[in-house]
Structures are given as structure tokens and as C-alpha cells.
Amino acid sequence: MSTLRHQVLNIYKELLYLGKSYPLGYTYFRTRCHKAFSKGAGLTKEEDIKNAIARAEFVKKEVETL
């Protein structure tokens, strides 16, 4: 498994874990998170994947502040 794939899976799992305490509910958060990651499933360029990971890290920080 490539390191980028491993990073993507880790951030996805972390976001799902943080979503358990999301104010609008876990199912709302999970469906939105799943849509966002599904949208980026076709990315093949390393730079694009790194940008998507950085965006997910930003979202993670925002959810942590809630």
C-alpha cells in the first residue's frame, strides 16, 4: 500500500471518529465525509492527492474545535 493511500485512509478514519461527537449527528457527518472522499477517489496525481489530504487535515482541525 502506498504511503499516500495510507495517509488518506488514516485521515478518513480520524474524521469518522471525530464525527461521533458532531453536533448535527454522526450519520449527517459520515454521509458528508463519504461524499467528499468519494469525489476525490479518481485523483491520480500525487500533488492533487496531497492537496486533498491537506484539505482534510484542515477539516479535522475545524471539527476538533467544535
From TrEMBL:
GO cellular component, one term: mitochondrion
A biological process term (GO) from this entry: respiratory electron transport chain
InterPro entries, alphabetized: Complex1_LYR_ETFRF1_LYRM5 (IPR045296), ETFRF1 (IPR052000)
Source species, domain of life: Eukaryota
Family, as annotated: Belongs to the complex I LYR family.
Annotated protein name in UniProt: Mitochondrial zinc maintenance protein 1, mitochondrial
